[in-house]
Amino acid sequence: MSETINYGIDLGTTNSAIAIYTDGEVEVFKNPSNLKQSLASVVAYKGDRIIVGDKARELLKRTPNSVFGTFKRKMGTSDKYFLEATDGFISPVELSAIIIKELKNFIHSGDNPDSVVITIPAAFDTMQSNATKKAGYQAGFSEVILLQEPIAASLAFANKSANNLADGKWLVYDFGGGTFDVALTSISDGEMKIIDHEGDNYLGGTDFDRAIIDKYIIPAMNNLGVFNNLEAELKKTSGKYNRLYNKLLYIAEEAKIELSNSDISELEFEVVDDTGNSIDIYLELDKSTFESIIKPDIDRTVLMIKEVMLRNQLTARDLNCVLLIGGTTYIPYVKQILHDELGLTIDSSMDPTTAVVVGAAYFAGTKLKSTQNVKTTTSSDTIKSKLKIRLAYDRVVQTDTTPILCRAEYVEEGYKYRIIRKDGGYDSGLLPLEDKTKNYLSVAAQVYNTYVLTVYNSAGDKLYKETIGITHGKFGIDGQPLPDNICLVVDAVDENTTYLEPIFKKNDILPLKKTITKQISKTIPRNSNDRLIIKVVEGSIDTLPSANKLIGLIEISGSKLERDLIKGSDVELTFEITESRDIRVAAYLSLTDQEFNDTFSPTEHHVSETELLRETKYFKDNLLAKQKDYELDANYEKAEEVKNILFDVINLEEEIGELEHDDISDTKYKIDIRKRKLGAKIHTFYSRSFLTKTIELYYDQKINTTNSLLAAKSTESDSI
Ligand code: ADP
Ligand code: MG
After folding, report:
1. Given the CA of residue 15, which atom of ligand 1 is nearest to it?
2. How far from 100 is each of 15, 40, 122, 135, CA to CA, in Å?
């Protein structure tokens, strides 16, 4: 009788997998069709058939138009894929659900689990996390717990029997197909913790494939044939060579993989150019050219590692090793740069493609199903009793005794209990059952321990029985850190400014709860269509509100009010966020004495070129004005600094201008991230006067579109 979730899924950009935890051990299920321990995250439509996995990936070469891969990158966005077969659209969530369903077919026992742990990159934002949960529900699960991938990898690493880890710190470097994560992990006194992380959701092996096309194949094609605007014709859905683009991605990936084991790889394909000439293209890509193509991307990962080390005041000597995870770490050049530039000890002892799913299953083995927290005696029992039992204990321990807490309801006179370890190594003896009972179990080392708890009534009849499993010598994790700050956008009308107020901070341990009180900035008449709208954003605290991501809105409509809501009156907001990043906000209006639960509606990420252009233009105008000011003041040093940032802004503006409106790549999401980073840079770089001006202007623009909260003295009460 198991009440833990036990099933773990790694829903990867390129490869997915499923594993189960049973009695202290993890099994990664094999794909029944090819006996591999993973499934390519690719879905293909062929007539009315849906093909999933490696076979679908193979189809990229032939019928690329109805084959979909790397959709994890679009999770949490409003983007959809056009599906010729149905003349309709399919969302990244629906495609992910198809992958999850296929993984369920790997379970050879025929079990149909209703709860599961699904992993997500540590850098996934709230919208991407929500989309992942949705995919799990669509695939038929009723409970989905999210686990950050670096935590999963660390669990797998720490629990590998060969690893008798002493206290210390290490880095997890997860470079997969679509995402990059680096996490700082520590073990101290037998407890494992994730201390900090950095990551980029748009950086992975796929970008190497694209870079091979951009920097190597396209120039070569232009040399060999006559093409007009080749790059655009390849990349946009309506482009003349769009079919070829998907095929090229496949070819580039194969070449890249070959280069992990050889010095040269061949790329071959056929194309008809704009003059109608059919050209056989044959190229040889050598290792050093490939390395120069991917170096900028690897350097970005090195920078992120340095950031984490700096932030935590660590040098290479403070770290035991850097643990390599993800298919991209097969590339020898990646290891070389990590070693040469950071002086870190490389650990590639884990299988980079299964580490995450193994860790997910370990985690699932310690997670209770939410539906099974309370056990009641069943009707099959001969003796009628309302007895309810709830047990609390650690499922994974490092010590040789461990406490177990038993809460019982409807206990009657003379009830007794007994706990016996199945191997005979422990017996509590018959003890009186109370409403709250605490006991210490003795645990056998380095094995999975099974105990049976039995409750008897005064006549000695068996009322209740439960099996307890405790693994010794493995690591569990107590809580996951929040990957980014979550803030409220607050308008201070009197000062004409907008600022961010943190609700939860990056690396706070989930779940979290907090109540803050604010004042309403505007009167909202009862029965009106006016609304109180509060924006919740995610990202850096030290920045302009526009440099953050909007993750949802708290909304209270005038039509629901029992009295007018007067400007300046209090609203008490209670924020709750679960381990799987579900956000709930309750609002209490003291003036009308009304409470609103679930006022929060999460958004999807939508990036529009016009909005991007508007914002970059806005950055540019500000910077130009500032540069002029500095020049007039003869402060040439500062003027030069402004000029440098301006240079980045103008570059970005140009790239936005080049975006095709039906571009199928994820360039616009990458640009959006860069725009936000620039916003943050501008904010931290410049003087107070500049900042004030920026905020004022920002507010002027914004005032017409939403009404919000008034900033004033605020009070808060903290967390669980
Ligand atoms: P994800 O977690 O994103 O699903 P994986 O960890 O499975 O990804 O890694 C997939 C990525 O690794 C792909 O971009 C793939 O091309 C790349 N990859 C796999 N094997 C190799 C190899 N031998 N050499 C270089 N890259 C590889
Ligand atoms: Mg992965």
Report:
1. 4
2. 11, 11, 20, 8
pTM of the model: 0.82
Ion ligand 2: protein residues whose beta carbon lies under 5 Å:
12, 176
3-state secondary structure (DSSP) of residue 695: helix
Question: What is the bridge-based pairing of β-strands 486-492 and 531-538?
Answer: antiparallel
Amino acid at 287: K
329 Cβ below 6 A of ligand 1: no
The strand pairing partners of 476, in sequence order, are: none
Q: Which of 472, 461, 468, 354 is nearest to 420 (CA)?
A: 468
- Ligand 1 mutation target, pool 15, 173, 265, 324, most atoms within 8 A of CB: 15
Residues 504, 510, 514, 518: is their CA dihedral positive or negative? positive
Is residue 57 lining ligand 1, measured as CB closer than 6 Å?
no
Dist CA 211 CA 656 (whole Å): 19
Mean pLDDT of 574-590: 89
Please tell me the residue having the least CA distance from ligand 1 atom 19.
327
Listed in order, strand segments (DSSP E) in 312-356 are: 322-325, 346-347
Return the ligand number nearest the Cα of 206: 1
Which residue owns the Cα nearest ligand 1 atom 22?
257
* Dihedral sign computed on CA atoms, order 599, 605, 611, 612: positive
Q: Closest residue (by CA) to atom 11 of ligand 1?
A: 177
* Token duo for residue 155: 């669990």
Structure tokens at 284: 């040889």
Q: Is the pLDDT of residue 710 over 80?
A: no
Rounded-to-integer distance, Cα 73 and Cα 57, Å: 17
Which three-class secondary structure state does DSSP give residue 457? coil
| 41 CA → ligand 2 middle, Å | 11
Look-up of token digits 């936005």: 656
Task: State pLDDT tens for residues 375-430.
Answer: 445 444 456 678 888 888 888 888 889 999 999 999 989 999 999 998 888 999 99
Residue 206 Cβ inside 6 Å of ligand 1? The answer reads yes
Phi, psi for 92 (deg, rounded to 5): -60, -35
Peptide bond into 32 cis (omega under 30): no
332 neighbors 346 (Cβ within 8 angstroms): no
The alpha-carbon radius of gyration of the chain (Å, integer) is: 29
| Total Cβ atoms within 10 A of residue 358 | 27
Query: Does any ligand 1 atom lie closer than 6 A to the CB of residue 121?
Result: no
Tokens of 212: 């091979």
* 209: CB partners within 8 A, 6+ apart: 249, 252, 253, 256
The C-alpha atoms of residue 672 and residue 408 are separated, in whole angstroms, by 54
State which ligand 1 atom lies nearest to the alpha carbon of 356: 2
Question: Does 362 contact ligand 1 (Cβ within 6 A)?
Answer: no
DSSP per-residue string spanning 67-121: EE--GGGGTTBS--EEETTTTEEE-HHHHHHHHHHHHHTT-TT----SEEEEEE-
For residue 99, give the ligand nearest its CA: 1
